[in-house]
Write a structure and sequence with these properties.
Helix 3 packs across helix 4. This protein is mainly alpha-helical. Helices cover 73% and strands 0% of the residues. It starts with a helix and ends in a 9-residue tail after the last helix. It has one domain. It is built from 5 helices and no strands.
Length: 128
């Protein structure tokens, strides 16, 4: 039996999100190991990963329409703010920056809902 489109898209989102997360976390880790402060490392790794993530995420939703990029950036800005807030809270609880960021990462599966509703709301058939 074939999974509904929502389930397939969600699992494809999780897969691409895993790739995006690995990429972003690698950039973040490299910066921490180079002595960059965690908040700056979050900002830099988010900025570096945005276009890469737009390509993989837009593939999941079936649209690489660049007109969606401003909404995509808005979702990423909100997620980056949430990331910094949660990172700060976990570090204040006594965790190091690498472990704190690893613990914070799973919350970003919620970005699927934001992407689906705000960025890629139109069905793939309605996009060009």
């Amino acid at each position: 039996m074939m999974a509904p489109a929502f389930d397939r898209r969600f699992f494809a989102f999780l897969f691409s999100g895993g790739i995006n997360t690995l990429f972003g976390y690698s950039v973040y880790t490299a910066q921490i190991l180079l002595g960059i402060i965690p908040h700056v490392a979050v900002v830099v790794s988010t900025i570096v990963g945005i276009l890469f993530n737009f390509l993989t995420t837009s593939a999941v939703f079936g649209s690489r329409d660049l007109r969606r990029l401003p909404r995509f950036l808005a979702v990423y800005a909100a997620m980056m703010g949430l990331n910094i807030l949660l990172l700060d809270l976990t570090m204040r609880a006594g965790l190091g920056p690498l472990l704190a960021q690893a613990i914070v990462l799973p919350i970003f599966t919620l970005s699927f809902l934001a992407m689906r509703r705000f960025v890629f709301a139109a069905s793939p058939e309605q996009t060009s």
